[in-house]
Design brief:
Layout: H1 2-118, E1 137-141, H2 145-157, E2 161-165, H3 168-174, E3 182-186, H4 194-202, E4 212-216, H5 221-229, E5 233-236, H6 241-253
């Protein structure tokens, strides 16, 4: 009996110990699980913090890039506006200089015409005698002020004397007391046009042989008409200054 009691006590003690050990294992597993859960939560929090920091950094970078782009755009716009302002100033200065030059050209042409008009002139038929440019007077008859100024500028630059007429009637009036060495005339002009002016000159013995260069739009229909009218050169637009000067030298100097 005693042995059975002792054995029963041992078995009970073993059972109790086993239950304690099992309970300890269960508690250890629970604690480990809690620790793992806390570690995982910390990792998740750290990851969220890192992602948030990355997003903030990306947003800041985008903001800085946008700011830099806006600053660059503003700088380029300021440079463009400055360049436009500089270009406008240059164009204004060029226009002023051109206007002054045009005024000088017109004044010189008017002075030449006035000086010639002030001297008694004996109208004689024109002969090609090979005059130097500075002794050669060229009349420009054109209703376009721009054409008169541009052509005058080219001729004066090459030392020719110039007189101007705004249309065929004024050219015919001037030819009553001014005898140019060559006439440059437009085709279409109000009042007396280029062909009517040419017929007027060719019908007058004093101007019948006056060299005439007619500026036209290059129409083929005018070629035969110009030849019949007695035009020496029909110069179609556009033409170069060298072409014009070459025809003038040939007609006035035989060059």
């Amino acid at each position: 009996v005693e042995a059975a009691r002792v054995e029963a006590a041992r078995v009970e003690a073993a059972r109790i110990e086993a239950e304690r050990v099992e309970a300890a294992l269960v508690e250890a597993e629970r604690v480990e699980a809690e620790l793992l859960e806390q570690e995982f939560a910390l990792l998740q929090a750290a990851q969220q913090v890192a992602e948030l920091a990355a997003k903030k950094a990306a947003a800041l970078e985008i903001e800085l890039a946008s700011k830099r782009a806006a600053e660059d755009a503003a700088m380029r716009e300021a440079q463009r506006q400055k360049q436009e302002a500089d270009n406008l100033e240059v164009e204004r200065e060029k226009a002023e200089a051109q206007n002054k030059l045009d005024q000088i050209v017109l004044a010189e042409a008017a002075a030449t015409a006035a000086a010639i008009a002030a001297e008694p002139v004996k109208i004689e038929s024109v002969k090609k005698i090979g005059k130097a440019p500075e002794d050669t007077l060229i009349m420009i008859a054109d209703d376009s002020k721009v054409v008169r100024v541009k052509t005058s500028r080219v001729l004066i630059k090459n030392l020719y004397q110039v007189t101007l007429a705004e249309d065929g009637n004024e050219a015919a009036s001037q030819l009553d007391f001014i005898m140019p060495d060559l006439l440059i005339t437009d085709v279409e002009m109000p009042g007396m046009d280029g062909f009517e002016l040419t017929h007027h000159l060719r019908s007058n013995p004093a101007t019948a042989s006056l060299p005439i260069i007619m500026i036209s739009g290059g129409s083929d229909e005018l070629v035969e008409k110009a030849k019949l009218a007695g035009i020496d050169v029909l110069l179609g637009k556009p033409y170069s200054d060298d072409d014009l000067l070459g025809h003038i030298r040939r007609l006035t100097q035989g060059a």
